[in-house]
Amino acid sequence: MFKSFTRLVVYVTLLGSPQIFAACSILVIGDSISAAYGMDINKGWVTLLQNKLNRNNLNCKLTNASISGDTSAGGVARIDKHLADFEPNIVIVELGGNDGLRGLPPHTLKKNLNTIIDRAKNAGSAVILLGIRIPPNYGKPYTSRFEQVFYQLADEANIGFVPFLLEGIGDNSDLMQHDGIHPNEKAQPIILNLVWNSLEPLLSQ
Question: What's the structural domain count of the chain?
Answer without folding.
Answer: 1
